[in-house]
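ARCHIVE CARD
Drawer: 12
Card no.: 0347
Subject: one protein chain, sequence and derived structure
Cross-reference: see card 0346
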Amino acid sequence: MRYFPMRAVICACVLAASSAAWPAADPNNTQSYALHLPLTFNADAPLQRLLLPAQVMVNMQSGGMRDLRIFNAQGQPLALALSDSASLRQTENRKIELKSSPIMGSADVADISASSLRIEEQQGKRIVQIDSNAADAGAPRKKVLGALLDTRAIADPVVALALDVDLPDAQPVTFDLQASKDLKDWRSLAQTVLYRAEAGASGLGTDHIELPAVNLEDQYLRVTWTDAARRTAPVVMRSATLTTARGVSSVARVSAALARPVLNNPYELRFSLPFATPVAALKITPAGDNVLLPVRVLGRNDPGQPWTMMAASVVYKLQSAGKLQTSAAIELPPAAFREIKIEADKKTPGFSAPPEIALEFEPVQVVALVSGAAPYTLAAGLANAANPYLPVQSLMPDYRAAQENGLPLATVDGAAALVPATASRDGMPTRSIVLWAVLLLAALALGAMAWVLFKQNSKPSGE
């Protein structure tokens, strides 16, 4: 029976190794979190809001901001609600005037709604022709059948369009709006009817056409007009003014500096991010003076995975008329990649030294029900944490959109965040290495246990 202590020791080793690989931290215990910041609430306000600082953003270890808690002096977590990101955004409208290119065709064409178009340059002017396979016998008389607008560079959704046109007298005119990517296949967007009794008189109908946030990027817009008999009306169109709309944050983005990463070579730098918060943009400022580099930004979550293309842009640092100009932050898609690679165009000299990099995050706001005594602690940084948030409507009865923005704003005391630039590498992911190491340790322990048992059982009974 002397082998039982050895078995107990081996079992203890296996259990300890397993516990080290999968720690069971209590999310309701302040000490389970990596980051602790002092939080100050306003007096006599049961509901208050908090904009998360950069230090919290770069310490989150669970997606969806789940590893965030606020504890009172008794160590009790406060009730929290995550504010809808839309409450921190407002609509920005922009007007874009586009000159129209006339669509020319045969005078006997009554309806071009199903016609294909081709664009020609004639004497420095863009002319749009109806693309027809019919022979141009006798050079038939041409007339203006409509207008084409080049909207390919408009990235934001279009919510309205206003026409700058001259109308014939006492003749109602129907305007049709269509869009196409290839000038062949057209889809209908909207229609309006305009009427003017005589020259100089105010017209009936509206030249302002509402659109349901249409995406016209990489497309053309065609405007055609007809009279009551569906014949081409004598209309002169000069231009159209498009109104775009996009959501922009009413609160500034949160920024954190990245410690300068190691430059693998002049054309590549890579680093790992020690947090789960999605990065909205990268502000890259190259070292040196008068530098301009086309770059690509790629991301992945583990070594061994293929890189995913995230963005391509040009970064620069230029001195112009005694004023320093630097490139804007590079917008990134909403994906939380843990590893980032920045590649410089190899047709350039590349990076002479690691650039300055700032990480930008979309603002995040939480609503807290203040309970218990001060001091209060904002805690963050716990992997695999459960979702702590209640619906904001449960904390604010009769809730109205963005109502939480009127609550008192709590403040956090803390220094500026500096994110370590951990070197990224190829090979097996760290998590896989840890798991295989634990399994190997467990296998060795079980093997040692079996060997001890075998030796004990193989001894003569008299020993």
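Annotation on reverse: The first helix runs from residue 4 to 21. The helical segments are 4-21, 54-57, 392-395, 430-458.
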